[in-house]
Design a protein that fits this description.
Distance between the termini: 11 Å
Radius of gyration: 23 Å
Structural class: mainly beta
CATH class of the largest domain: Mainly Beta
């Protein structure tokens, strides 16, 4: 029984904002349509083009940074991909680019499934403060998911405050790799963290980049952020890995091997006896652990925990990467019980041999309450990873696949209850 854990609900809610828009190339059905658009614009007088562009600027320039650069980029994209058109004036190029551009609302459906890690920049803080960042799964038209970021500060008293979110959103510059579907992505140095959006770029993730589990990985003092996520193309899933040191430049790579075929891979924040280690869900319902000398290849796994208690009778999984404490690795888990009720619990793994489960709670400490139960998928709380700072374990969590909240728990209370359950 859980008796001693005091869960603190932090009064911050992140709601989906349909006004968060990016621009994408507007794919018309076939080259003939694009040629028709070109012909119409080429026949406009210079005065007509200037008048149309003026109206476009009035309607859209406050919604996007450097909108002319976006339009010219889309003009050049179609010129390269589809055909070589006779030369247009610069204004007509901009208008053609604008006509081959669409806005996409990345949060029109939901904002959910967060993870939380220390921010790469800890400069300029007051005593006792810690800057953090969170990843978020944004879902828009067509149920396509992308990845966004937010930042904030925890003060010496444990109070959490989020930084203001920019009104702009941009997708960065993509460089495709010869090892398809790997690619790299970079953002302007002048862009803010909350402006950067990782939107699907390859066929394997064309219908979504889902549930990124961020972790700050320490390899003998060399710090790298990794994020495992599920790529979805509408038919199949694939485990992918993003890696970055600054959240300006990203490398996206595919995880390979028979053990990397299911959802929910969560990387330990350091190597275990010289090997990378991952907690994953296998068979859709139980947790496994796996080790590899190669970060990108996962061939074998062994069962770690199976559903045992009523709150996880249907299935269980992890809620992010394990957190290191002197008592062992604290692993947040999620369980699915009757009427598809998701809840969050915890287990304790041996520090030197995490294949050994020292203890696990026999019931959840976080369940959807009151208005948290209502949303796109009712009765769900879900996290992709929390952050330990001092004695406080901060847990961002999704409410019914629609919005995000924050909770915290004293890690000593959680460990005490875990030890009591042994």
């Amino acid at each position: 029984m859980i008796r001693m854990i005091h869960l603190n609900k932090i009064p911050i809610i992140l709601e989906a904002d349909p006004g968060r828009v990016i621009t994408l190339p507007s794919i018309y059905p076939g080259l003939a349509r694009i040629k028709n658009v070109y012909k119409r614009i080429s026949n406009f007088s210079d005065e007509e083009v200037i008048a149309i562009l003026s109206e476009v600027h009035e309607l859209f320039s406050h919604r996007h940074k450097d909108i002319e650069k976006l339009f010219m980029g889309n003009y050049e994209f179609f010129l390269k991909e589809y055909a070589s058109f006779p030369e247009l004036t610069d204004n007509k190029k901009l208008l053609l680019g604008a006509s081959l551009t669409k806005e996409y609302s990345i949060q029109s459906a939901a904002l959910f499934n967060p993870s939380m890690v220390p921010h790469p920049d800890q400069s300029g803080l007051k005593e006792g403060e810690k800057r953090f960042m969170i990843s978020l799964r944004s879902t828009g038209e067509g149920h396509i998911s992308s990845i966004e970021f937010r930042s904030g500060i925890v003060d010496m008293n444990g109070n959490l405050e989020l930084d203001e979110c920019s009104r702009f959103a941009l997708t960065g510059e993509v460089s495709l790799s010869e090892n398809e579907p790997d690619y790299s992505l970079s953002f302007p140095f002048s862009s803010g963290l909350s402006e950067r959006v990782l939107f699907p770029q390859t066929e394997v993730e064309s219908m979504g980049m889902e549930d990124v589990r961020l972790v700050l990985f320490n390899d003998h003092g060399d710090l790298t952020y990794y994020g495992t996520y599920t790529a979805y193309n509408g038919k199949e899933i694939r485990s992918q890995l993003l890696e970055t040191k600054d959240f300006l430049n990203f490398n996206i790579k595919t995880l390979k091997g028979p053990a990397a075929r299911d959802k929910g891979m969560a990387l330990f924040p350091e190597k275990i006896h010289g090997k990378y280690a991952v907690i994953s869900r296998q068979g859709g319902e139980y947790l496994s652990i796996m080790f590899s000398e190669d970060l990108y290849n996962w061939n074998d796994y062994q069962p770690l925990m199976e559903p045992e208690f009523p709150f996880e009778v249907a299935q269980m999984g992890n809620c992010g990467s394990p957190v290191k404490t002197p008592a062992g690795w604290v692993l947040l888990t999620h369980g699915v019980g009757p009427v598809r009720q998701y809840s969050i619990s915890a287990a304790l793994l041996d520090l030197n041999d995490p294949t050994k489960v020292i203890a696990r709670l026999d019931r959840p400490f976080l369940q959807a309450q009151d208005e948290e139960r209502e949303g796109y998928v009712p009765n769900v709380v879900y996290s992709c990873g929390g952050m330990l700072y001092g004695d406080i374990f901060y847990i961002p969590y999704a409410m019914s696949d629609s919005r995000c909240g924050f909770a915290s728990v004293n890690i000593n209370d959680l460990l005490k209850e875990l030890n009591a359950s042994r």
